[in-house]
Amino acid sequence: MTITLLDPTGERRPAERPRARRPASLDGHVIGLLDISKPRGDVFLTRLAALLGARGAGVRRYAKPTFAKPAPADLRRQIAEECDLVIEALAD
Amino acid sequence: MSLPRLPDGLVAVVKRDCPTCQLVAPVLGEIAARGGPLTVYSQDDAGFPPSVTASSRARDEDLALSWHHHIETVPTLLRVEGGVEAGRAVGWVRREWEELTALSPLGSGLPAHRPGCGSMSADPSLADRLRVRFEGGRLASRRIDVAELEDEIETAFERGWSDGLPVVPPTPARVLRMLDGTSRAPDEIVAAVPPDLVPATVEKIAVNAVMAGCKSEYLPVVLAAVEAACTDSFNMHGLLCTTYFSGPVVIVNGPIAARIGMNSGINCFGQGNRANATIGRALQLVVRNIGGGLPGGIDRATFGAPGKVSFCFAEDEDASPWEPLSVERGFARGASTVSLVAGHGPSAIIDQISRGPESLARSFAAVLRAAHHPKLVMAMGALLVVSPEHARVFAGAGWSKARLRGELEALLLLDGDELARGAGGIDEGIPAQVAAGRKLPKFIPGDLAIVHAGGRAGMFSAVIEGWVSGARGSQLTTVEVRA
Hints:
The complex is a heterodimer. Chain A is α/β, with parallel strands linked by helices. Chain A is about 25% helix and about 25% strand. Chain A has 2 helices and 4 strands; from the N terminus they run ββαβαβ. Chain A is elongated, with a radius of gyration of 19 Å. Chain A starts with a strand and ends with a strand. Chain B starts with 8 loop residues before the first strand and ends with a strand. Helices cover about 30% and strands about 20% of the residues of chain B. Chain B folds into 2 domains: about 110 residues, Glutaredoxin, CATH 3.40.30.10; about 240 residues, no CATH class. The longest helix of chain B has 17 residues. Chain B is elongated and about 105 Å long. In chain B, strands 13, 14, 15, 16, 19, 20 and 21 form a 7-stranded mixed beta sheet that branches. Chain B contains 17 helices and 21 strands. At the A-B interface, strand 1 of A face strand 10, helix 5, helix 7 and helix 11 of B.
């Protein structure tokens, strides 16, 4: 006799999303640098900003209020509106 | 399945395998001959009773009619008007049958009354099967059929539903029984469970509570725990993702704790109590299965902690000299609540010598100071669990919980110069510009919770070290338990 079980999961497998297309070069692109507010992430991003600037990329800086929570929706939208690319620093 | 409609007139439900039904068979014949219209439903034999013509007999073959009309005893005689039950006599009671049929005298040769037999629809050996047949439609979860040669417990492992221990297979019958523990509708949405923010229904949580090994009376506590976990203040998402040790610690207050047999005493953080062990486990299974939070996936803990399987206990309110956590949190005395705090541990405080509150408070402060790291302050919370033998010292000196907290705050106002990076030859610490020349509190006010629990013997208390506290991290969150 078969036994019937009830599925305990959310019954949703996230649809596989294609990765965003990678740009051929950084020329003319605005790059967002997102500091998640972990200690010393800003050190890493400041160095990156200098290196990217030297290659002709526009750089904008952002920071999450706390590393311990997801980025606020407004911040995510702002980054999406203002930038073509984003680099997120995870540091300790 | 819709309610089987009752035919108008008189309806009797009987079974051949019942001496009382045999006894009243001639009476049914008498009613059919004198009054009618009468329909007799037999649960076990379509030919019974022979005293009634075949056209007036029907077989309640799948027991649907008996189930849906709550027939618990046979014979049961119903009077039906416009498809609706207007009267009922259970067993054989001449006076009631005469009243219901408006025929008198009835069954003259019989005793005045005779109790009936159990209805087949109430037979314990059939109860689960009938319930799934007639009520299974209330359950919306996807059905997964496990083949005969498979072991359903292994299936649960293979499908990734387990926390590493065997789970109770969530069959429809078990889930229906679990749902008896709440008056909330199975399709009511309790919370959006992180990380996937999947809306969790009462039913889905019940499925996971079955797997965790809960009894149905624990379900209201599990529902409240899920509700508390999925608030912005508790921040289950962040707690799950952290590389740090912590997980949700569940503290139960109020009368429900004793009612469901929770442990607030000897070994209350340990093994051996079903409610403590399974309520915390159910919460974690909900996060795993409904929310999609898997270790190695979103859960990035470096070590984790054993309490991430289940960390759940009740506060010992009866022996406590202080107001319970629920009352401190603004709930009425007598309310049942679930409080969630991020934590792991416990860490021990041994003090078998102090007999005065000042000395004991200093012991507490010394251990609390070392929580997380002796040089880190104002970032993480903690839960102090005071044992009965320690609480007695404070009670004897008339110290309220607020007094103890105040004294601890004073003792834990630390010299910034000792906390600065590099101080004591330890690079870890507070940035010098923040620490230098200042007094800094170990805990931000509100980040040190105090409860009373543990066995009556043992001059120990416990520190459950928290995680990132305050609005930036996870805050103690309390939800009232609803039936």
